[in-house]
Amino acid sequence: MRKIVILAAGSQGDIQPCLALAKGMQAAGWAVSLAAPQDFAGFLQAHGVDFSALRGDVRQIMASDTGREFMETGGGNPIRSIVAMRRMIAPIVRSFSEDAYTACRTAQGLICLGVFAAFGQTIAEALKIPVMHVEPTPLLPTRAFPAASWPIQRSLGGWHNYLSGWVMLRVPWLWYSPFVNDFRRRLGLSVFTAADFYRVLKTTPMLGAYSPQIIPRPPDWPPGVHVSGYFFLDAQTAWQPSPSLEAFLQAGDPPVSIGFGSMAGRNPQKLAGIALEALAQCGRRGVLLTGWGGLRPEQLARHVFVLDAAPHSWLFPRMAAVVHHGGAGTTAEGLRAGVPSVIVPFILDQPFWGARVQAMGLGPPPVAQKNLTAGRLAEAIETAVTDAAMRARASRAGAAIRAENGVANALGVIEKHFG
User: Residue 209's domain spans which residues?
Assistant: First the structure.
C-alpha cells in the first residue's frame, strides 16, 4: 500500500478540505498521513486520520499584534503583505519545513497545498517522490478573472486578468523565498527561483478544490489542473447543539449567523458591536460566532445567541443568511447551505470570493472590513434576507453543489498520478 502525505498549514479553512481529502483517500484504501500545525492535533485526531505535527502555533501567530495588524491592513497591499508575512512566519518556518520533511521520509507521494508548492517541491526532490498540488482558491493566471488577491476585483479585460495572475504569483513566492532556499541549501539542493516556482505550479498536477458551478475551469489553464468540486467534511464527530441553542432556533424566524473565523483585527469588541447594532437596525435575530479570532460582544441582546463555534454544515442551512469573512472554506459551506452570503472581506483571497458571490447573484456586494459600519452591514443583511430572486439563486446553487462529490472526483485524479 502506497503511503501519501498531505501537507497543509494555515487556518482551519485551509486544513479542513485537506482533512476531508485524507478521509476520502483512507476510505478508498490509501495509507494517508496529514502533516499539519500542532495546534490542530485534537481536531484532526478526532477524525481518525494519521497525523504528523508541524511545530508552530498558527492561532498564536494570528492573535499576535503583527497578525491582527495584518488582518486589518497588511493583506490588501501586496508589498506590505510580504513584509508582514515574513515577520509572522520567521520564528516557525525552519521547524515547519524540517517537520514536513520528516513526515514525508517514509512516504511514496506528497500532496501539498499550492501556496506551499516551493516547500513541497523541495521535499519531493530531496526524497525523489512524486508530488501533486491542491488549491482551495485559484492560483494560476487566467484571462477569465482577476487573481484572487489582486486589489482590483473586477474584470478590466483578459490581459488585465492574466497580468494580475502573474504579478500575484510573485507575492507568495516573495513571502517564502528566503526560507525555501535556506531549506534547499540544508538539503544540498540548488537555489529555487521565481521562474522555478511558476514552472512547478504550471506543470505539476493540481486539484482545484472548488465547485465548477462557482469557478468553471478556464480554457487557458494547463491540462493538469482539475476542478474537482469542494472537499466537504461531513462527519462532524459527535457534535450536538445545546438545548439553549435549539430553543433559540425554534423561538422565531431563522436567524442570521455572523462570524469571521480567525479574522477579528485589533479590536474584536468593536467588530462585535457593529454586528449587534446591524442586527438591531434591521430587526433580525442573529447567531454570533465568536470563533478563534476572539470576536467578543460587550453586551448581549435577547435576539442574539452567542456561540463559540458550530459545524457550518449543521448551522448554515438553518440560517436566513450567513455573514462571514469570505475565506474559501466558509464561503464553500455558505454556498452549499443554499442561503445568501454577506461577505465582509479582510485580506488575501477574501475579496475575490466576495466578488464572485456578488457576480453570481448569491449575495449582496461585499462590504470590506475597513469600510464596515452598522448601517452598511444592516443594509446588506436586509437585502440577503428579503431579495426573493437572490434567495432562489442561492437555493439552486446549493442544490447543485450538494449533488457534487469533489473528493470522489479527486480520487480518480490521484489514482492516475500516484498509481
Answer: 3-230+404-418
